[in-house]
Amino acid sequence: MDGMEQNLTMRLRDERTEHSDERNHILDAAARAIAGHRQGDPGVHDILREAAVSGRTLYAHFSSKDVLYVALLRREFDQGFHWIMRQIEAAESPLDQVESWLDAYLDWYFNPEQRARVLLVMSGPVTRAVGYLD
């Protein structure tokens, strides 16, 4: 690979990382907006204010608020799933794997911070999002 190809590859990787960081920033802001909005569903303007981004930036990542909420749900459960799987993979025998799965699930579920995150993404605004049941 010549220098020009390497430069292009590095730029594309940086853009993906930046895109991912921006997307996660918006997801984090949406979670904060939901948590801080006790009555009903926060509006897009609440999420934009919390994220300090423009509507154009938000819609570059998510086609609608429902898509944003489903992405938030997926991210939270994917993180939990991958954390539990890493615990299982570290176990040596099948019996140790079952014990690791149970211990990891209970640790994840009963961790106060994680439990709050799960309850947040299972709250009214997220559960009403189109695509939630999918």
Task: Give a brief rundown of this model.
With 134 residues, this protein is mostly helical.
Outline the structure in words.
With 134 residues, this protein is mostly helical. It is 78% helix and 0% strand. The protein contains 7 helices and no strands. It has helices at residues 3-36, 44-51, 55-61, 65-89, 94-110, 112-121, 124-127. The protein is elongated. The relative contact order is 0.12.
Write down the secondary-structure element order. Answer: HHHHHHH
Outline, from the CA principal axes?
A: elongated
Low-confidence stretches: none
The assigned structural class equals: mainly alpha
Q: How can the largest sheet be summarized?
A: none
Secondary structure layout:
Elements: H1 3-36, H2 44-51, H3 55-61, H4 65-89, H5 94-110, H6 112-121, H7 124-127
Structure characteristics:
mainly alpha; 7 helices; 134 residues
